[in-house]
Every structure is written in structure tokens, then in C-alpha cells.
Amino acid sequence: MKILETKSKQFQEKVRSAPKSPGCYLFKNAEGKVLYVGKAKNLYNRIKSYFASFNDLEKRKQQMIEQTEDVEFIVVDSEVEAIILENNLIKKYKTKYNILMRDDKNYSWILIEDKVPKVNDFPRIRIIRDSAKKNHIKGELFGPFPSQLPLRNILKKLRKLFPYATCNRKMVEISSNPTIVESSDKKPCLYFHLGLCKAPCASLQNSKDYNASINKIKKFFRGEKNEIIKEYEKEMFKCAKSLDFENANIWKKKIEEIRYITAHIKVNSEVDDISIAEIQKSEKQSALKDLIEKLDFPKEKLFLKANFKIECYDISNIQGTNPVGAMTVMINGELKPELYRRFKIRNFDTPNDYAMMQEMLERRLKHIKETKKDKDISLSQPPDLIVVDGGKGQLSSAYKILRYMGFENIPIIGIAKKNEEVYKITHQFRPKINEFEPEFEKISMNKKSSAILLIQRIRDEAHRFGITFHRKLRTKKMILEQNLD
């Protein structure tokens, strides 16, 4: 990763803290001009690969990385959304290196043929790889898309909702009787039996119905899914009003399928009007607000704090050997690698994650009390929320230290690894027995909500940061032992 070392510290931090989520990335030069737009299932892995295997890259990609001085990320809900967004961003910025790479065979277009009466009453949908071909076929073109496989998967799902023909049969509707279709083969094929084609070749579907399905697919690629949903909702309510609940349920399932396939493609209409930085900021603020509401914090806290700070803690060891603690930090929903801290556990050499967590927290909290002497900004400023990697046991042991150190007012939660359940403490102290006896409340969160994703992201980052440090110490110890032998 030597090429990365030649970049600014700010750029290096952005690369190392890239989201491990699907989305798009934009490489920019020193003037802020976008050089290249790419998509990835895991942005962190993709960005890292550019620098880890720099010498193996083709020359033009090496030149691109050499010119890159900044990178921006936009996280989306799925690979489907990333594909559509990438296409829009390439068109918007007319990026130099995307244009250079468009000649590659990997780039594809979706061509939806035009209906030509008496010649092509049943237009087909094609994936075109050769850019020269697209100029010789009349129809609406969508693309370019850098990869063909995701496109095929999208069309496969769409075809279940909006069946269409893929065969080479010549099919022309008889003008005098639209219910009859002249075809080179009138026997329905396998796709009819699979529900992927309604067999217009066998006069089982007319061109009006067929082209209505084709138009819906066009709307999908234009980002107009809401129009389709409204139309289907109208049909659903119509069936429900006439007590035809069976068909109403069919329409409902179609609506759900459209929403699933499109994966909330909301960025298409926004990308031209709102900067990517603004979209990211808005999404992070929304996730943070969602989290605070779920945890039942005072709502004013979000607005009173200019920089809402979350700290996450994790312990890493193998059977108690080389135990280390990791602290990761988020401010206003954004990871801040420059504020991360590592702790060598001093007092334990046998497995005891609870005690190790307590030692780390006690050492960290001491810095807040010694704020005048401590110049470390990361440790001198208290967090607004603490997250511990663990369930009820880890949460309980961590809270004991907060009480002992006089910081019981700092909200603390735990996230259990097994089922990704989030817990908070509701009753911390029982005066009658004069003992600490916590009660736990499970926070109800949708597994795909922005709140749980925010917690998971800082938790996963703490785990990664801790493991990296643990491996480093373990390797160092092994080398030392070998030298002694």
C-alpha cells in the first residue's frame, strides 16, 4: 500500500474508514474534479484493493490512482440501487476514466426495442455489449452499466412481475382481429409454463397487454417505480372494495415485490439537485436521530449537542493471551479514525472479558477527570453514548465501572452478537438491598433500520480495530520467542 502513503493523511483516513456497505465511490483530483465513479458490494474492500494491488493494475488505472487526491462515498441499500446510481453519476459528471474504460466489453446497455406495427408488435429487451450495435436498433437505451451479471439478475426478477418474450419468433398482430397473432411457431415454450412469458405466439396475449408490461419495465429503469405502485394500489383497493380479497392480496404481493426489486431507488431523482456530501450528511443525521428516539433519550439532546459523540468498546484475545481493548469513535454518525484508541490489558492473562472491559473503561474514564492535564482530545472529551460489544453480562460489568467512576449519567447500551439484539439498563440500583442489581430492556429495532446499522457499523469497526492490534502483538511475541530459541 505504498502508493497510499504518498497521499494526504485525510485521504488515508477516508480509505481506512470506508463503509463496509454497498454503494458508489467517486475518485477526485486535487481540484475536486471527479475522475472516476465506481460501485461495490463492499466499499471498504473495493477501495482497499486499488492500493493493495496497485502494481498489478493496468496502466490507465494506475494513472487514475496517482491523480486521485480525494474520495467520496455514498452508501445505498443494495447492489441494485448502486448499479442505477453509478450510471446516473457517470452521466452527470462525464468522468474521464469511465469514458476511457467504456470501450471494454464489460460495459453493457439495456435496449428496449420500439414497437413497429406489422413488423415488430412484440418488442424484445436485449442486453448489448457492443456499443456499435446500439446505434442500429430502434428503441430506448439504458446505460452504460459496467457489469452484465447484475443486469441479468435484475431483468430476471422483473420478468416474473412483467412477463415478456425473449425468443426470436416473428410475431405480428392481425389488424382485423387483434386477438390473433401470426407467429413462426404457435406452440408455447417452456417460459410460458414458468410464468415468464404469456405466449403471444399462441395468441394468448395481445400486443396492447404485452406493451403495457414493457412500458412498466421502462418506468423501472427511469426510476419511476412510484407510478407503477400507485397503479397497482388502485387495483388492490378496487378488489378489496368488491370483497375480492384473493386478488387484492395478489396485487399487494406485486407491490411488495416491486419495492424489494427496486430496493428503494430514491437517489435517482435527488442526485442532480443535492450534492453527495449533503445526501450523506442527511442520512447520517437521520440515522442518529432514529437511534436516539429508539433509546428513548431526551429529544433535545440531539439539537443541544453540536457534535454527538459515540464511543464503542471491544475486547480481543485468544484464551486470555495478548489481551487488548479497542475504542472507536463516531461523531454525528461519522466514524473518526483519528480519535480511535487502543489499550493493552495489564492485569489479566486468563480469559475474563468482563474484567478486561472494566479495566479498559476505568482507564479511559480517568482521562475525563484529568482533563486539565490531558492533551488527548479523544480521551478528555466525554462521550454522549457508550456502546459495548456484548450482551447483558458485558453491559452489566461496564455499567458498574460507570457508577464507580461517577459517570452513571452517560447512556450505555450493549449489542449481543448472537441475534444482534440491543439492550439498555432500566433500573440500576435497589435501595432496599443497597446493592447494584441491573434490569435490562431489549430495544425493539428493525434489523434493517438505520439505527441498528449505525450501531453495527461502529461495533464492527471496534472489532476490526481490536483484532488488527491483537494480531500485531501476537506476531511480535512469536518472533521474539523464536529469536530466544
Would you mind describing this structure in some detail?
By secondary structure, this protein is α+β, with helices and mostly antiparallel strands. The strands form four sheets. Strands 9, 10, 11, 12, 13, 14, 15 and 16 form an eight-stranded mixed β-sheet that branches. The protein starts with a helix and ends with a helix. It has four domains: 2-103, GIY-YIG endonuclease (3-Layer(aba) Sandwich); 104-222, no CATH class; 223-267; 289-484, Nucleotidyltransferase, domain 5 (2-Layer Sandwich). 45% of the residues lie in helices and 20% in strands. Helix 10 (225-241) runs antiparallel to helix 11 (245-262). Residues 102-106, 264-277 and 300-304 have low confidence and may be disordered. It is elongated and about 90 Å long. Residues 282-402 form the UvrC family homology region profile domain. It holds the Pfam family GIY-YIG. Residues 20-99 form the GIY-YIG domain. This is Excinuclease ABC subunit UvrC.
Total domains: 4
Radius of gyration: 29 Å
**N→C terminal distance:** 33 Å
CATH architecture of the largest domain: 2-Layer Sandwich
Largest sheet: 8 strands, mixed
Uncertain segments of ≥5 residues (pLDDT<50)?
102-106, 264-277, 300-304
User: Quick one: CATH superfamily of the largest domain?
Assistant: UvrC, RNAse H endonuclease domain
What form results from the Cα inertia axes? elongated
**Given the structure, what is the number of helices?**
18
CATH third-tier fold name of the largest domain: Nucleotidyltransferase, domain 5
Care to count the β-strands? 16
Domain UVR: 226-261
InterPro entries: GIY-YIG_endonuc (IPR000305), GIY-YIG_endonuc_sf (IPR035901), GIY-YIG_UvrC_Cho (IPR047296), UVR_dom (IPR001943), UVR_dom_sf (IPR036876), UvrABC_protein_C (IPR050066), UvrC_RNase_H_dom (IPR001162), UvrC_RNase_H_dom_sf (IPR038476)
Domain UvrC family homology region profile: 282-402
Pfam families: GIY-YIG, UVR, UvrC_RNaseH_dom
